[in-house]
Amino acid sequence: MENIVVRNHVKVIGQGDQPIIFGHGFGCDQNMWRFITPAFMDKYKIILFDYVGSGSSDKNAYTSEKYQNLQGYVQDLLDVIESLKLQQSIFVGHSISSMIGLLASIKRPEYFKKLIMIGPSPCYLNDGEYIGGFERSDISELLDMMEMNFAGWASYMAPIAMSNPENPALTDELKQTFKSADPVIAREFAEVTFLSDHRNELSKVTVPVLIIQCSEDSIVPISVGDYLHKHIKGSTFSLMEAKGHYPHISHPNETIQCITGFL
């Protein structure tokens, strides 16, 4: 039997009984949560993991076929939950992980107590009246750049996504994280992320949802947060003062306040 804990580099920390799972976004790994987790150590059982192909996961477990859409990543999350025999978990997802958590909760609602989404988007492409933030040509250029000059792509993308020029160390860290990824896997994950469209699934969510949106996010416009809030019934919407797509790194205290306020 496959060892999920090894495959997904699963770590369990904290003193509490209530499970809280943190899922990283595209191009990242569980290290991205290090400023957030200390606030939850006392009361929660914290589960950290890397999706297959990311971070310190077993890259040999990655196949293009399994991960050609988000369902492969949804299965990763469900595997982690099942291997640890978790019930009624709180799931905190950043960026595309928000949709991975959402799809997992539709499949197995009994596994989830609440969903917390940081910078989520159900669709990154502009589509008629829906403004996702990108034209298809933008995404094609991005994917071409990743293929031709991966390091150049990382250097270009990191400052745009972090959007905190007053703290260059954070941008540099994100750039190094991007660069350390497997270029082929990262490009495939980018394609799956930026070309996915899960707007039709939003109405199927049955667990309470918090949508955390930054005041200025170069990856996800505020209109997307509004769209999610409108289409996920009973959801809570929290607009942060923080700017950028990584508030859990750039503004951990405000992010923690949003999360704890909802919990």
Structure description:
This protein has 263 residues and is of the alpha/beta class. The protein has a domain at 4-122 and 198-262: Alpha/Beta hydrolase fold, catalytic domain (Rossmann fold). The protein has ten helices and seven strands. It has helices at residues 4-7, 70-83, 96-107, 136-148, 150-162, 168-180, 183-194, 222-231, 247-250, 252-262; strands at residues 11-13, 18-23, 44-48, 89-94, 112-118, 209-216, 236-243. A seven-stranded mixed sheet has the order 1-3-2-4-5-6-7, sandwiched between helices. β4 (89-94), α3 (96-107) and β5 (112-118) form a beta-alpha-beta unit. α4 (136-148) crosses α5 and α5 (150-162) packs antiparallel against α6 (168-180). The chain is globular and about 45 Å long. The termini are far apart.
The end-to-end span amounts to: 36 Å
> Which second-level CATH architecture of the domain at 4-122 and 198-262 applies?
3-Layer(aba) Sandwich
- Helices, by number, come to 10
Q: Considering DSSP H and I runs of 4 or more, what fraction of the residues is helical? A: 40-55%
Query: Sheet with the most strands?
Result: 7 strands, mixed
Say what the CATH topology of the domain at 4-122 and 198-262 is: Rossmann fold
Which blocks of ≥5 consecutive residues have pLDDT under 50?
A: none
> Quaternary state, please?
single chain
Per CATH, the class of the domain at 4-122 and 198-262 reads Alpha Beta
Q: Could you give the count of β-strands?
A: 7
* Proportion of residues in extended strands: 15-25%
Spatial ordering of strands, largest sheet: 1-3-2-4-5-6-7
CATH 4th-level superfamily of the domain at 4-122 and 198-262: Alpha/Beta hydrolase fold, catalytic domain
Rg computed from alpha carbons, rounded to a whole number of angstroms: 17 Å
Q: What is the residue-mean pLDDT, rounded to a whole number?
A: 96
